[in-house]
Amino acid sequence: MFALGVPRPFKYVRVKTLEEALDALEEGRPLAGGQSLLPMLRLRIPFESLVDINELDLDFIRREDNAYTIGALTRHNEIASNIPLLRGVAITIADLQVRNRGTIGGSLANADPSANYYPALIVLGAEVKAVSKKGSRRIKVKELYDNPYTTTLREGELITEVSVKEPRDAKLYFKVIKKGGSAYPIAVLALLKESNGKLHASIGGVFPKPILLEGENKEELVKSIEGYNEKPLSDHHMTGEGRIKLVKDLINTFDEDYREIHLIEGRKINWKTGIGVMATGEIKIRVKVNGKLIEDTVEPLSLIHI
Length: 306
Prior knowledge:
This protein is α+β, with helices and mostly antiparallel strands. Helices cover 23% and strands 29% of the residues. It has helices at 18-24, 37-42, 76-82, 87-90, 96-101, 104-110, 117-123, 141-144, 218-226, 240-253, and strands at residues 11-14, 29-31, 49-52, 61-64, 67-71, 127-132, 135-140, 145-147, 150-151, 158-165, 170-177, 187-194, 199-204, 211-215, 269-270, 275-276, 283-289, 292-298.
């Protein structure tokens, strides 16, 4: 446990209103689902202050005509259950536990180059609303991602919602390749095919940032990949050359034997109250927060995230 050193103390703040959150974020980092932040804490990456925003009223999905507005704290499983357009994107994220806890806003703010949401939201022309004490602004998702794990959000800004429209006279195809059910993808392809055959493709996991390509056919997209002037990512899972070949194969076969993903309902948890639907049994835990000892009960599944 101590091979990485003794964990550094940090301030934990739990807020209930957006105004409280924006005040606290002047010196802290937001804690939403924690699926990326908690592993960082385990690796002893230091944080001075964490601002728990889970009590904010940002867990919602609203639809008006062909447009969706998604609260930043909406969990992946809720998106898979209620937005068919993004079902294939959300349901292929990690595993059931992560999808129950992880949020769309947290995923976008984390800006992992292999994240599921970016390619699909980029090709759909989605945007986010970012709020700070100075006001609010809207940012196209393709302009939100800056570099791996870095966004164009300003100091003190918080993503509060994501807006995306269903494409008219076009079909979205989404494919993700990964090793292991909970692993990050090796390659992600989101492809929008218009009724006239024109293709818009966004690719993640292959280059340091998601890219957007357009072409009249598959051959043009493949040539664009071959001529893209950026060094591909390479790691122990796959070389950069292998990733290039893989995504070219995905483009060439995207509409052959394509299968829509049908949701199998899994357990959902109300993370505002900590009460699990269909939960059985409970475990008592004791933790010290800001020097104060807190004792409470949790369902067994919650221990996966501790």
